[in-house]
Amino acid sequence: MYKVKINVTLRKSILDPKGKAAYQALQNLGLSQIEDVRIGKFIELTVDAGSEEEAYTFAKTACTRLLANEVMEDYEITVE
Amino acid sequence: MSKKIGVLVFPGSNCDHDAYHAMKHIMNAETEFIWHKETDLKNIDLLIVPGGFSYGDYLRSGAIARFSPVMQAVQGYVEKGYPVLGICNGFQILLESGLLPGAMMHNEKLRFVCKNVSIRVENRNSLFTSSLREGQVLNIPVSHGEGNYFIDSDGLNRLEENRQVAFRYCDPNGNLTQESNINGSVSNIAGITNVKGNVLGMMPHPERAMESQLGSTDGVLFFESLFESLHLA
Q: Which ipTM did the prediction report?
């Protein structure tokens, strides 16, 4: 059994309004050292696979078919 | 043979009854609901994918509805050239299904926008807009939090070349201004068609602009144009 962790983020070139709103609030808190905020999604999968590579392949299919929309999002997969 | 309109219903659809009412009682067309588990779209001459929050809009708007059994049938239906109209969440579902290009993001200012807006008819190429005037301004309500249409610059060029932009947000005089772009959409885009012109996705709700008591009847102009193309009238 593998734990697969996936981070889905908006592409760098795309304005992230949620991140921007959070950024503004952090500025208001006085955390002026924070220069940028990007908000994404964290997804954890439990995968019954024979190997790490296989688990990765399943997760990649899950990302391309459903979990991420590649028109606007990037994803990062980590298998544990 | 009488013509029939189908209105798809997903768990979480909430404009299905608006669409049904508009088609059946105002346009006087034979109309039926189609549950998302159906796999047969036989005898349907126009399919409407209505607005709402299908599957709670979990993950992304329209992302999960795309895997409903009926969507397989919709793919085939579109390939055969039948007309499909996606409104609001219906537009989002068509994008997620790959039946239309691009994606929908949260409104630029993160606010849910619910009001009447002006949209400009950009072309008469599709069967949806063929009886409207190019440049005609329609007053149609919007009601969405994720209507910020995105497509990369290559994609946008293709949309323009193929004349796939059907509607753009504008001011009441038809000018494309930044203020009138209520959600931050690329190039003020409010609605697009596929290359073939038989699929239209739009964020504004023409089915909610059918009776003067509700503020605008410009939706009727839109549906009359569509019905004329489809010989439904």
A: 0.79
